[in-house]
Protein: DUF1254 domain-containing protein
Amino acid sequence: MNPNKLNRSARLLRCAIALLISGTAAYAGHASAQNTLAQTLESSRDALANAPFAGDFPTADSAKALSEELYFQRAVQVYLWSLPAVNLFAMKEGSEKTYGAGYNVLPVWKQRLNAKTKVTTPNSDCLYAMGYVNLAKDGPIVVDVPPKTQGILDDFFQRPLTGPTIGGKAYSGDFGFVGPDAGKGGKYLIVPWNYDRPTPKGYYVYRSRTNNVLVFFRVFFTDPKDLKPANDLVAATHIYPYGKRESAVPMQFPNGSTDPANMLFPHDGAYFDMLARFVEQETVDPADMDWRGMMAAIGIQKGQPFQPTARQRELLDKAAKTAFKMSKTEIWDALSTQPGGKYYPDRQWENVFAGQNPQFQASGTFTNLIQRDAYFTTAYAASPGMVVDMVEKGAKYPSTWRDSDGNLLQGGSTYQLHLPPNIPAANFWSVTVYDPITGSGLDNGQPLPSLNSMDKPAPNADGSYDLYFGPKAPAGKEANWVQTVPNKGYFIILRLYSPKEAFFNQTWKPDDVKRISQ
Structure:
């Protein structure tokens, strides 16, 4: 190759790589900026594809640029792959920082979970209690579940724990109403995946592939003004090491409603420090060896300190910011393209659990990474009770971030949502607004970012409901209004607890959200 041409190619490569790494992490809303971004990326890809080799070997500049790009790309993919784990580990660290650590600590949002607690897509219309246990530290753990509750046991990749098969039905993850105790309460024994001791009588044994396990309660109420019965149910919970009930540390039930925690995962390079802490606490799953190799390639190894150089720190920060924005693109734009991604062909309501598989493996041949990324960048916890179609059991979560014209929802406009008569929810229904960046409840100035059927919104004469979303309530519609924030987007989840057949056969369908004023 001509030396001048080689040097010119090397200069172009260095320039393009710098643009790639800085430009990829940037986002611009205007068309001209988008065009510039697309052109920058295309030029950078051209430069990488044409990185000069001399004598059949990469030049020093090519080797450096390609190695840095490989490090960056691996970091992006590690971020996306580990989202379920880091999302949940961030919840654990945030909770323990605020409420303390231990199997006996079960924070309860005793006056419901408001927008001051930062966590992805919580439900403000039932009581939440969330604790974290560690099998490596405390051995097998018993969760003594009270009656009339509903909850989830997930490992820290947010996979439902493998439970027993009873009467030909295999259970996983769920306890309470949709679990093997069917709402009657019972003792759940959480053990490692390779536990080989005899199954003790009187226990539902659930196996975990990770040391850390999420214990997540939902408790329902019928009167939002009287939460004492629901709180009493949670307070009857006991969590303790197997065989040590009498010597166990007494239960604590900190109040998350009065002492909110920040349990969100990082969107920058701090994400990888959190991932390194998670890896250090966890067992090595043989199924994860290739991905552990990906982590090792960016410096994260169990038993080794995570000590990236200053340049690697710079790349990791840009990789995290890029991956986070990619994950948001997966939910806002790509999810609807997936099989079953839309509930209705003529409406904007999307299904974050299309395929009815809590591990996003409905195909039987692969994990749908688009669905997986879309869910875990914005939400947490998965189980059959959330995913599988069960008439008058579990729940469904139709979600929308677009109005009837296909435009993204904006907090400065006013919208109307019409729900036809006979809303198919045997327990209750609700609508909740969320921050599209964090996925947390929208901090809109109201006591709660939601409205539910128990709040007794005003129905129309035919039993239908018109609900309103906007910065101000339309005149006379205050009881049917959820406040939004000007100059900020949001999305809506319509929750149907114990959905009826009319939802599944689609004889009942919610209207699209319609903009009624700018």
Summary: The chain has twelve helices and 21 strands.
